[in-house]
Amino acid sequence: MSFFDSEVVQQEAKQLFEDYQSLMQLGSEYGKFDREGKIIFIEKMEDLMDRYKIFMKRFELSEDFMAQMTIQQLKTQLGQFGMTPQQMFDQMRLTLDRMKLEIK
Question: Can you give the residue ranges of every domain in the chain?
Answer without folding.
Answer: 3-102
